[in-house]
């Protein structure tokens, strides 16, 4: 009997040789948090209810815990938790004194189940690995974990071209077998938010406020910026432009079953 083929996110998270290198790469952002993570911190601050003294915040796909470390420093009153499907990343979190006491577990975001127990759930650079049906399921699962009025915060590739849904298969040094990236239109995401029990969501395109150096064309592909004539910055990965965008959505009802 042949094994069922792993889906894109399963193949990606199961590639431990990739995660050895990725976990090391993540260390550089511990002392200097990513600009996009600082925006997530701001979005959390905006949405915290003054009446909730110890908000429960779950970082799904937390990797080695850089965002959790930032949140712990900046929001010491919060009750933080994380999960990731990469066992080595979770192991790194558990061995990290900066994250001591934070509950981090190996879990598949698509297998997370209720009851509602978080005020805020974060998907930071995670959803691009999910194909359409998985993405809809993911939003519904996360919706079920949130209290009424809770917030979902996503940072990912969402763009304004209503009719254009892109799936890019990248074969690169880190992903020689290929990994698929989904770039979704905001118009396509909104109905899925509704089905999952969220409002319309607030989509805020993200422009890096700093330059990222060009890494050259021969090695691993990593993000870099190019200046526009108007002084803005476009963020590329190899040959493609990344429409990075923060999304904050409020849970208003139970997900459609
Ligand atoms: C590009 S990394 C982003 C990591 C981190 N959130 C950040 O912003 O630095 C994507 C992360 O999502 C995790 N991931 C992918 N699919 C997942 C799933 N189904 N369940 C849990 N984690 C998943 C990966 O293991 C990886 O750590």
Ends distance? 34 Å
* CATH topology-level name: Rossmann fold
Number of strands: 12
The unreliable regions are none
Write the CATH homologous superfamily: Vaccinia Virus protein VP39
Shape descriptor reads globular
Q: Kindly provide the radius of gyration, computed on alpha-carbon positions and rounded to a whole number of angstroms.
A: 18 Å
Which distinct ligands sit in these coordinates? Answer: S-adenosylmethionine
* Overall domain count: 1
**Average of pLDDT:** 95
The number of helical elements comes to: 8
Order of helices and strands: HHHHEHEHEEHEEEHEEEEE
The largest β sheet comes out as: 9 strands, mixed
Helicity level, as a percent range?
25-40%
How large is the share of residues in beta strands? Answer: 25-35%
CATH class: Alpha Beta
Q: Provide the CATH architecture.
A: 3-Layer(aba) Sandwich
How are the SSEs ordered, and which strands pair?
Elements: H1 8-13, H2 16-26, H3 28-31, H4 35-47, E1 56-60, H5 66-74, E2 79-84, H6 87-94, E3 103-106, E4 118-124, H7 132-145, E5 146-159, E6 166-170, E7 179-185, H8 186-195, E8 202-205, E9 223-227, E10 233-237, E11 240-241, E12 244-250
Parallel strand pairs: 1-2, 1-4, 2-3, 4-5, 5-7
Antiparallel strand pairs: 5-12, 6-7, 8-12, 9-10, 10-11
Bound molecules: S-adenosylmethionine (SAM).
Write structural notes for this entry.
The protein is of the alpha/beta class. The chain has a single domain, classed as Rossmann fold. It contains eight helices and twelve strands. The strands form two sheets. Strands 1, 2, 3, 4, 5, 6, 7, 8 and 12 form a nine-stranded mixed sheet that branches. A three-stranded antiparallel sheet has the order 9-10-11, with no helix packed on it. A hairpin with an 8-residue loop joins strand 6 and strand 7 (179-185). The chain starts with 7 loop residues before the first helix and ends in a 7-residue tail after the last strand. It binds S-adenosylmethionine. Residues 9, 13, 61-63, 66, 84-86, 89, 108-110, 124-126, 129 line the site of S-adenosylmethionine. The site of S-adenosylmethionine (SAM) has 17 residues, from helix 1.
């Amino acid at each position: 009997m042949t094994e069922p083929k792993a889906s894109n996110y399963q193949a990606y998270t199961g590639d431990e040789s990739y995660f050895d290198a990725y976990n090391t790469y993540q260390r550089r952002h511990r002392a200097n948090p990513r600009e996009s993570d600082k925006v997530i911190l701001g979005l959390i601050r905006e949405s915290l209810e003054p009446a909730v003294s110890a908000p429960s915040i779950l970082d799904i796909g937390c990797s080695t815990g850089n965002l959790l470390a930032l949140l712990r420093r900046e929001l010491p009153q919060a009750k933080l938790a994380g999960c990731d499907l990469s066992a080595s990343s979770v192991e790194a979190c558990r061995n990290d004194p900066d994250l001591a006491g934070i509950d981090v577990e190996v879990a598949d975001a698509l297998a997370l189940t209720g009851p509602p127990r978080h005020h805020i759930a974060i998907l930071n650079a995670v959803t691009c690995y999910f194909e359409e049906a998985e993405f809809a399921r993911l939003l519904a699962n996360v919706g079920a974990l949130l209290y009424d009025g809770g917030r979902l915060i996503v940072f990912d590739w969402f763009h304004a071209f209503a009719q254009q849904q892109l799936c890019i298969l990248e074969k690169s040094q880190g992903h020689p077998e290929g990994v698929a990236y989904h770039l979704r239109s905001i118009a396509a995401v909104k109905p899925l938010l509704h089905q999952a029990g969220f409002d319309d969501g607030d989509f805020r395109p993200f422009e890096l406020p700093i330059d990222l150096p060009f890494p050259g064309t021969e090695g691993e592909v990593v993000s870099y910026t190019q200046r526009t004539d108007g002084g803005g910055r476009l963020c590329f990965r190899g040959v493609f432009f990344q429409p990075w965008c923060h999304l904050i959505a409020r849970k208003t009802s139970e997900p459609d079953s």
